[in-house]
Specification:
Rossmann fold, 7-stranded parallel β-sheet
Length: about 575
């Protein structure tokens, strides 16, 4: 069949002839007619079978004649969402090539670059917008683009869109689209999740499946090397050099792994470069252009960055790490063997990835040939690593014991140290009540001494020479003799003055003078209890208890008579 038989317009046929298209591929032959009729389509075809042309050609024809340039704003009439920058650029280039003579304008927006030229292109007006979900949602939030005039919506590589976590952004964008629109969903694989999504987006769709889901093309030779993970990088260099590979696309699981593999290949004398999401769009494009031009032998990429890489005649694809999702394996090897050409897909499998290999063989329905004789055969030591890891975790859990010093056998030696820490924790709690009595005693101290705060400061700094003769310093503060306060530094006459100030210390007692005399002793007893509670007694407290005499008071006649009687009875007992 020829494109002319699909009722394609002359301007588009002219552009197709210039790019070398004469006969449609199976997916194009089945998808173009229903899209021209305005129906929704769910298309499934392998990577490299021409899905882009299958929706780009009919969309350009359905847009009809371009609108007048005098229009103040040219609304977006067709929206194509793709998961990666590389794929967005590829689709944009195809739209430009197919619509060369139609007069329609196209633009592409994606992250990683400045949005200024993209916004300027949107302000000039475009008919077809190709975008990645993240950057498009950002521009919609800034009110830089409106999707109210979209007539056709295309969700390309839908399975990868969901795997990369773009589904929330995609749902938000779909809610802003007009309800009356044509929706096309194309994907290399259609798992159950994509089928559910299609049911919610498409209305009476036409199902197109050129080949069984996720079946690799027969022209690709597939083989697998069983190798320990520690020898994978050495095996990679050996395979590339031994087979004289000049253009090889290597897939890794992580971004860090891509950079590390590229560095090791350079050390082995093989020109290599890496592309992944952490690199700028300029660096990724330069690496891709150098790879296409043959300046780089090996291009190491992650799954996200490699989606959309279209290199005609790519001979080799190497899976440095087997993917966890079997469908991803189909995407990877689909980079080679395009347009009926032959290609080779090589995979490295270690002991931990055996289950991935089994899933891939079940999905593809064929057994992958194993290369048994090579320079780095699997030794069987790698599968033993998972058994060692629990031991490492157990030792790490005992890190608290080692932090204290030693292994678990040494932990009983530390148990006696725990009771030592308990008194240290309880010791500050024990004198809590004593500290309150100490505060009360300290509050009464200025009143007892009958002086102000300034006088107390001056009396706290006398030299040791001012101590009265015959008074020995207390034994408790012997370690700090300089802090001892002399007891006789204040005249004894100061106490009656204090007593005179507060004559009603104990109004209920029958003998107020005696109660007043016992008050200083009670204060000292409180301080003594504080000392017994754990606090070191203060120097001035001990000095007051031992050296300050109470003033003499006259005795009453009745008391004198009682004392005399008592003395007489004692003396009479001695005489007997």
């Amino acid at each position: 069949m020829k494109f002319e038989q699909l009722q394609i317009n002359e301007p588009i046929l002219k552009a197709l002839a210039e790019v070398g298209y004469s006969e449609p591929t199976p997916i194009q032959e089945q998808a173009i007619p229903p899209v021209l009729e305005g129906r929704d389509v769910l298309g499934c075809a392998q990577t490299g079978t021409g899905k882009t042309a299958a929706f780009a050609i009919p969309i350009l024809q359905r847009l009809g004649a371009p609108r007048e340039k005098q229009s103040p704003k040219r609304p977006v009439r067709a929206l194509i969402l793709t998961p990666t920058r590389e794929l967005a650029l590829q689709i944009y280039e195809n739209f430009v090539a197919y619509g060369k003579y139609t007069g329609h304008t196209s633009t592409v927006v994606f992250g990683g670059v400045s949005q200024v030229p993209q916004v300027e292109a949107l302000h000039r007006g475009v008919d077809v917008l190709i975008a990645t979900p993240g950057r498009l949602w950002d521009l919609m939030g800034q009110k830089k683009v409106s999707l109210s005039g979209v007539e056709c919506f295309v969700l390309d590589e839908a399975d990868r869109m969901l795997d990369m976590g773009f589904f929330p952004d995609v749902k938000r964008i779909i809610r802003t689209l007009p309800q009356k629109r044509q929706t096309l969903l194309f994907s290399a694989t259609i798992p159950a999740e994509i089928a559910d999504l299609a049911d919610s987006l498409l209305t009476d769709p036409v199902h197109i499946s050129v080949t069984p889901t996720a079946t690799p093309v027969e022209a690709i030779r597939q083989c697998v090397y069983m190798v320990d993970r520690c020898n994978k990088r050495a095996l990679l260099a050996h395979v590339i050099k031994g087979n004289g590979m000049q253009q090889t696309l290597v897939f890794t699981r992580t971004k860090h792994g891509a950079d590390r593999v590229a560095r090791d290949l350079k050390k082995a004398g093989i020109s290599a470069d890496a592309i992944h999401g952490d690199k700028s769009q300029g660096a990724r494009q330069r690496a891709l252009n150098d790879f296409k031009a043959g300046k780089v032998v090996a291009l190491v990429a992650t799954d996200i960055a490699a989606r959309g890489i279209d290199i005609s005649g790519l001979p080799f694809v190497i899976n440095f790490d087997l993917p966890e999702i079997p469908e991803t394996y189909v995407h990877r090897i689909g980079r080679t063997g395009r347009a009926g050409l032959e290609g080779t897909a090589i995979s490295f499998c270690d002991g931990a990835q055996m289950s991935y290999l089994i899933d891939i063989e079940e999905l593809t329905g064929r057994r992958i040939e194993e290369v048994e004789e090579h320079a780095y055969p699997m030794t069987g030591e790698q599968p033993a690593e998972p058994e060692d890891k629990p031991q490492c975790r157990r030792s790490s859990q005992g890190g608290q014991g080692r932090r204290g010093g030693g292994s678990r056998s040494q932990q009983p030696k530390k148990k006696p140290a725990q009771p030592k820490a308990e008194p240290a924790q309880k010791q500050p709690q024990k004198p809590a009540a004593a500290k309150a009595s100490e505060g009360e005693a300290a509050a009464r101290q200025p009143e007892r001494e009958g002086g102000g705060s300034g006088q107390r400061r001056r009396r706290r700094r006398p030299s040791s020479a001012a101590r009265p003769e015959g008074v020995k310093p207390p034994e408790a503060p012997a370690a700090k003799p300089a802090a001892v306060k002399p007891a006789a530094a204040k005249p004894a006459a100061a106490r009656p003055t204090q007593a005179a100030k507060k004559p009603a210390a104990a109004p209920d007692k029958k003998t107020p003078p005696a109660a007043e005399q016992k008050r200083p002793a009670s204060v000292n007893r409180k301080k003594a209890s504080v000392s017994r509670g754990g606090r070191r007694p203060r120097d001035n407290d001990s000095a007051q208890v031992e050296t300050k005499p109470l003033p003499a008071k006259p005795l009453s006649d009745s008391l004198r008579a009682r004392i005399a009687a008592k003395v007489a009875s004692v003396l009479s007992g001695h005489r007997d």
